[in-house]
Design goal:
Blueprint lengths: L1 E4 L7 E4 H15 L6 H8 L3 H8 L2 H24 L5 H15 L2 H6 L2 H7 L6 H28 L8 H18 L10 H11 L1
Antiparallel strand pairs: 1-2
Helix pairs in contact: 1-2, 1-4, 4-8, 5-8, 5-10, 8-9
């Protein structure tokens, strides 16, 4: 998808919408919604303020598009890993590994847009706050589904309380993204085996 930026009297310059959103995404992930200025977005996206408003709208509208694209890309990446899973236990194992891998190197330092936005939810408008809440609830729902699948296929203990375990897992994956922003606290694969042991018992 592409759009045009008006270059004065010269010919309009083509730019890729998705590429521009990806550049804005890096700024929002690194600095958060509230701390990101339009001038910083202009620099990152290599567009004028007018072009950003024309193509994406104001800052909240731009952020909503960035947030939607972030979720789409993350879900695509996770689903690509999950497609070869054999049971609910493996799905949770893959999910945890996905989050561990997400905090490696520069990716980890940039942080998770969902987690960062949840921390800032009080400064977001109602529409954005609802989008963040929906994303978190969707994550929780998916985890519950994986646990129930595991209990049905026998890979997870039937005595496990689904709601409690799902809440614990959600806190764990969100915590992984927070701890991953600092090298000294970045988690590794060892926490996966510990968590999976809880699900087995």
């Amino acid at each position: 998808m592409s759009d045009q930026e008006n270059m004065g009297r010269g010919r309009p310059r083509q730019f890729n919408i998705d590429d521009a959103l990806d550049q804005a995404m890096q700024v929002f992930r690194s600095q958060g919604y509230h701390s990101t200025s339009m001038s910083e977005l202009c620099q990152a996206m290599d567009l004028t303020v007018g072009s950003i408003y024309k193509a994406f709208g104001d800052k909240p509208t731009l952020f909503a598009q960035v947030f939607g694209r972030y979720l789409s890309l993350r879900n695509q990446a996770l689903n690509a890993r999950l497609k070869d899973s054999e049971n609910g236990f493996q799905k949770i194992q893959i999910l945890l590994q996905f989050y561990i891998d997400s905090v490696q190197d520069i990716e980890g330092k940039r942080g998770c847009l969902v987690v960062g936005s949840a921390i800032e939810i009080e400064v977001l408008n109602q529409q954005l706050a609802q989008a963040v809440e929906l994303a978190l609830n969707k994550n929780l729902s998916n985890i519950k589904q994986f646990i129930e699948e595991g209990k049905q296929d026998g890979s997870i203990g039937k005595q496990l309380n689904t709601d409690t375990a799902a809440s614990l897992l959600l806190c764990l994956v969100l915590g992984i993204r927070v701890a991953g922003k600092i090298s000294s606290t970045s988690p590794n694969d060892s926490i996966i085996s510990l968590m999976m042991g809880i699900l087995k018992n």
